[in-house]
Design brief:
324 residues; alpha+beta; Cathepsin D, subunit A, domain 1; 2 domains; 16 strands
Length: 324
Amino acid sequence: METLLAKLDNVFLKEEKDRAYEAYSYFDGITKNSSVSTVDYIIDFEQRYNRMKKYNMTLPDAVLAFKLLDTACPDEKSRQLALTACTELKFSSMKSALKRIFGGKMTGLPQGRGKLYVTLQSGQQKLPLLGTNPLDKFGKQSRCAICQSTFYWAKVCPHKRTEQVKITEDANVEECNITLFTKASMSDAEIFMTESLGSAIIDTACTRTVCGEKWLENYVDGLTQDQLKQLMQTETPSCRPFRLGDGNLVYATRNVKLPAKIGLTKCQIETEVVKADIPLLLSKTSLKKAGTILDMEKDSAVMFKQSIPLELTSSGHYCVDIRD
């Protein structure tokens, strides 16, 4: 009997080692296909890692964060943007940054596309010129937001503006604390918008919740058909005036209720929509309805009677993930 048990133990241990190695190889060999969205890839990444953890194989939090970054962002510019948006060197922070930046969009270049070729005088051989802008979600070469160049983005554009823009408020219009544009170039605003995709900015000085068309378009892309139908049913016309950071008066085009999830609580966020490049700004009224209590020491907030971790944008604004 003892001999039989010993043989069974040897067989079981061997199978256990085989399964452990299989789990390790399955995780270590993970790569992101350009047709897979960032959100779906993160889910796959976590599932593979959790499978490996069952065999007592874990990675330091920072190493896991870099593993996710390297495999999710194949190009240098995407990695730099993610590092900028990542507030802490933690896996949870990196995961949140990638979700906020790319959301349900695809990242990476499909094979055979997005390359610029130059002819060398010596051999007349065409070689790809590295460093050109990656493709956007429509498969076209992405361009600088300022001068439309395909060789760089707005952050390094030689034509970007550096002058200060002051905020002026009017008692007859809704007030928005768009301090992100104060003493900021267009590239800073562009980065702020990108960091805030899928998240809501906590803006206690904003008198009414508002978002821009581009932010809303990105958010809607990540909704299910049922959620989209629900949103469309809540849409009503609006012409409410807002004065934003550039000093110009803009009018809301409509009012919608966004299906959202903050922590474990599913909710609807009512917002005005304007034709301006701004993220979703949660007003003081909306924050009060959620029972919000800010804890700046821990970079968190109590919302709907639960502690919610907050992300910090590169411009110093708190934001909360609202994607379901």
